[in-house]
Amino acid sequence: MSGIAETPEPPYFAVIFSSVRTEGDRGYGAMADRMLELAAQQEGFLGIESAREEVGITVSYWASEEAIKNWKQNAEHLEAQRLGHNVWYADFRVRVARVERAYGI
User: Fold this and answer.
1) Which of 94, 88, 78 is nearest to 14 (CA)?
2) Are 48 and 1 in contact (CB under 8 A)?
3) What is the pLDDT of residues 53-71, one digit of tens each?
4) Is 73 exposed, middle or buried (0-12, 13-18, 19+ CB in 10 A)?
5) Within 10 Å of residue 99's Cβ, how many Cβ atoms?
6) 8, 48, 36, 19: CA torsion to nearest 10
7) Cβ of 97: how many Cβ atoms within 10 Å?
8) CB-based burial label for 68 (10 Å; 0-12, 13-18, 19+)
9) Which of 13, 41, 50, 76 has the fewest Cβ atoms nearer than 10 Å?
């Protein structure tokens, strides 16, 4: 995962995941890699962007709200969510938005 995601013409959806990590890796890196691999296989997945300093922000792009719902219910993703709640995150927020306009250079 690197750079800015190539997304289609809007409308589409963005899931914005903001987080503060706990100390140490404890399997986080391997799971993050697996989630990226798995998400990319999901119907309706359009791309992802991520950055981390004190606060991590990952934005994943989806073709529809149904695709987001299906991803949220994926069995491996559910396990990653459970571990996130119990092990990896001191705090987090998930926000879902409809992208109406997009432009850049």
Assistant:
1) 94
2) yes
3) 999 999 999 999 999 999 9
4) exposed
5) 17
6) -150
7) 10
8) buried
9) 41
Structure tokens, 102: 């997009």
* Each residue's pLDDT tens digit, 41-57: 999 999 999 999 999 99
**pLDDT classification of 18: cutoffs 50, 70, 90:** very high
* DSSP structure string for the chain: --S-----SSPEEEEEEEEEEPSS-TTHHHHHHHHHHHHHTSTTEEEEEEEESSSEEEEEEES-HHHHHHHHT-HHHHHHHHHIIIIIEEEEEEEEEEE------
Bond from prior residue into 10 cis (ω within 30 degrees of 0): no
Spell out the residues 6+ positions from residue 3 whose beta carbon is closer than 8 angstroms to its own.
Answer: 49
